[in-house]
Amino acid sequence: MQRRAFLQAAGLLGGFSAFGFHAEMRSAVAAACGPLAVTGPSPYGPLLAPNADGLSLPAGFTSRVLARSGQLVGTTGYTWRNFPDGGACFPNTATGGWYYVCNNEVSNPGGGAQAIEFSSSGAIVRAYSILSGSQRNCAGGKHVGKWLSCEEVSRGVVWECDPKGVAAPIKRLPLGSFAHEAALSLNPRVYLTEDQPDGRFYRFTPTTWPSLAVGLLEVMVVNGNSVTWLPIPNPNPTSTQTSVRRQVASSTIFNGGEGITSFAGKLFFTT
């Protein structure tokens, strides 16, 4: 948010403070932030005052604290790691429960990913590590029953992890070695953002879907309203070789690629 936009929004706060943070105020702040910062009506109703957990929720919603960094998770005996980051839920078809997986944006030791298993009633069954020994695992994404944990370091990689913690994590080098942020799996490809000031936007096409063992890594080139994709010559450069994002001179720069999602046949990612 630009400083000027922030000051404009701050000036609007006084006019709406007597009415609370409702639709008119959200629209006014959005207008000050720019044409793309537009909010829509919530299907759940307005937010209520913060509850005992400090969360403002709509009517009918409740919350509970599941884990805190450096503390045991319930009665599992597992200590929750520091700096939890990107995560997702996976169904447990055998029990009707689910698994919640979560990255840890910590330099080694301490990086990786962890998980909590829930019963069908929402009770915590166990907590455990699904990846360790990696670096600054920031975001990632779901991929056909697996969790893709992305390392946000120079020449970082993507780890394919088992939410159940049974299968060993796999380092998927074909997806490239760079400062990974998020991954979006959309058959037949995986789209990847890069969190660098001169980062790029990539896509990986597996030779055989959904296996990530072999495939083609490409980078986006934007020219006006047209988009093309060019192959990355060396997806896994050494420290003395040209980094992935600088191998295709015509590729388009995106300042700090972050989260990515899809909606109505379109891709959206933030910078």
Structure described in brief:
This protein has 271 residues and is mostly beta strands. It has helices spanning 3-16, 23-33, and strands at 84-92, 97-104, 112-118, 124-132, 137-143, 146-151, 158-161, 170-172, 180-186, 189-194, 201-206, 215-223, 226-231, 260-263, 266-269. Helix 1 runs antiparallel to helix 2.
Description of the structure:
- The protein is mainly beta and 271 residues long.
- It folds into two domains: 1-64, no CATH class; 89-269, no CATH class.
- Helices cover 9% and strands 35% of the residues.
- The strands form four sheets. The protein has a five-stranded antiparallel sheet, with no helix packed on it.
- A hairpin with an 8-residue loop joins strand 11 and strand 12 (215-223).
- Helix 1 (3-16) packs antiparallel against helix 2.
- The longest helix is centred in the N-terminal third of the chain and has 14 residues, at 3-16.
- It is globular, with a radius of gyration of 21 Å.
- The termini are close together.
